[in-house]
Structures are given as C-alpha cells and as structure tokens.
Design a protein that fits this description.
By secondary structure, this protein is an all-alpha fold. The chain is built from four helices and no strands. The protein is rod-shaped.
Length: about 100
C-alpha cells in the first residue's frame, strides 16, 4: 500500500518528505556491513589473545583480519556508504528547503 494516499501526502512524498526514511534505511544497511566486519575483527582479536596466552599451531587471526579488510574494501561497502551520504544530504536539503520556504 502506498504512503501517498491523499493529494497532500502525495505532494509531500513526491517532494521528499520521506527522504529521512530512505536515509535511515540505507544507514541500517551500512550498519549491518560494519557490524559484520566488527564481528570478524573481534573474532580475530579473541584468537590472537588466545594464541598469546596458549600458543598452538593453526591460528587463523591473520586470515580473519584479511577478510575484515576485504569487506571494507568491497564495492558493496563503498556503494552503501556513498548512498547513505547522498540520502542524508538529500534529506537535509529537503528539510532546509521546507523550513526556509515557509518563512
């Protein structure tokens, strides 16, 4: 069901009133990506500490850290970051326009 039911709400939707919703959604996507990288880096940290306390062969901390770096360098991460920035800027611009037009 569309958010833009009435003529007035359709105008607000068309003009960007929901841009903060889109910005928030994109930020949640970015947060999920960062949370995944954070979990991977934390696992590497725990493994490194474990190896420092009780050395054993086969530690995988460097591999986990490489995976975290690869996630941060991935096109998806860069695209999501760029999209979040763009959507936030759009939301700010729309709200600025609305507040300055009404005065």
């Amino acid at each position: 069901m569309s958010r833009c039911r009435t003529r007035m709400s359709h105008s607000l939707c068309r003009d960007g009133a929901f841009s903060p919703v889109h910005a928030h959604s994109t930020l949640l996507d970015l947060k999920r990506l960062v949370d995944d990288v954070t979990a991977t880096a934390h696992a590497a940290e725990l493994e490194a500490v474990s190896l420092a306390i009780s050395p054993r062969p086969g530690g995988d901390a460097p591999t986990k850290l490489r995976v975290a770096v690869e996630h941060l360098q991935a096109a998806n991460f860069e695209a999501t970051l760029s999209q979040a920035r763009e959507k936030l800027e759009t939301a700010v611009a729309w709200h600025y326009k609305e507040t300055t037009n009404g005065q």
